[in-house]
Specification:
Layout (H helix, E strand, L loop, with lengths): L11 E8 L2 E8 L2 E6 L4 E9 L1 E5 L2 E5 L4 E4 L5 E5 L5 E8 L1 H7 L12 E2 L2 H7 L12 H18 L11 H13 L7 H8 L3 H11 L6
Antiparallel strand pairs: 1-2, 2-9, 3-8, 4-7, 4-9, 5-6, 5-8, 7-10
Helix pairs in contact: 1-3, 2-3, 3-6, 4-6
Length: 214
């Protein structure tokens, strides 16, 4: 990830711990923050304060507090404050292969413009865009990324391909965790115990989480 072009007084960047290929930051900038650059990841974020201005796909965009930003991999963009007061934002960087794995090989979702007020995306990114000090664990992050991928696909107008939840696999995963609740359980262990990949497990859990056995 490219570093800020010029650090000015009171500018700051905080970074979240890298988990399973997802990086997160929270930052405050005045004036010019970033020169033109690209990411090989999705850059998905939320403006928290001020006006976050950037040039993206031949047009200037202004993200206001509460807006969700979705920048497609390998799309050039810059970043600067849209006013004298500076701007604050949080951003996560997600490998496109993770999104494609969740979607079963579908084309990568693309949102024109890079800024959206879509409530579905605001909800799907809420847990992923918490303060960097409140990082999710691997299981929580996997579930949140699975939901985000499907919401991105829906917002981009891609055909819905959510698989049907597997009640038996979800119950097996829950029982496995309950049987050894004092030990940290990894996604790899759950995959082995249930015979399901992490993305299918995340969907299983959401599909049956309100059933009586929980």
């Amino acid at each position: 990830m490219q570093e800020p072009s010029t650090k000015k007084r009171h500018d700051w960047v905080r970074r979240a711990e890298l988990i399973d290929g997802v990086e997160g930051i929270e930052a405050w900038f005045h004036g010019n923050a970033y020169s033109v650059h690209r990411h090989d990841t999705y850059a998905i974020g939320r403006t928290l304060a001020g006006v976050q201005r950037f040039n993206y796909r031949r047009s200037q965009q202004n993200s206001l507090p509460g807006n969700t930003i979705v920048l497609h991999p390998d799309e050039a963009h810059d970043g600067q404050a849209g006013g004298d007061g500076g701007f604050q934002y949080r951003m996560i960087y997600v490998q496109p292969s993770l999104i494609q794995d969740v979607l079963g090989g579908q084309a990568l979702p693309f949102l024109e413009g890079g800024v959206t007020t879509d409530r579905r995306l605001a909800a799907a990114t809420a847990s992923l865009l918490q303060p960097v000090s409140d990082a999710l664990d691997s299981l929580e992050q996997s579930e949140a990324l699975s939901e985000l991928a499907h919401v991105l696909a829906a917002a981009a107008g891609l055909p819905a391909r959510r698989p049907k939840g597997d009640f038996v696999a979800a119950r097996r995963a829950r029982e496995y965790m309950h049987a050894d609740f004092e030990r940290a359980i990894t996604l790899e262990q759950l995959e082995t115990a249930t015979g399901r990949d992490r993305w299918s497990l995340s969907h299983d859990e959401r599909s049956v989480e309100n059933d009586q056995w929980i």
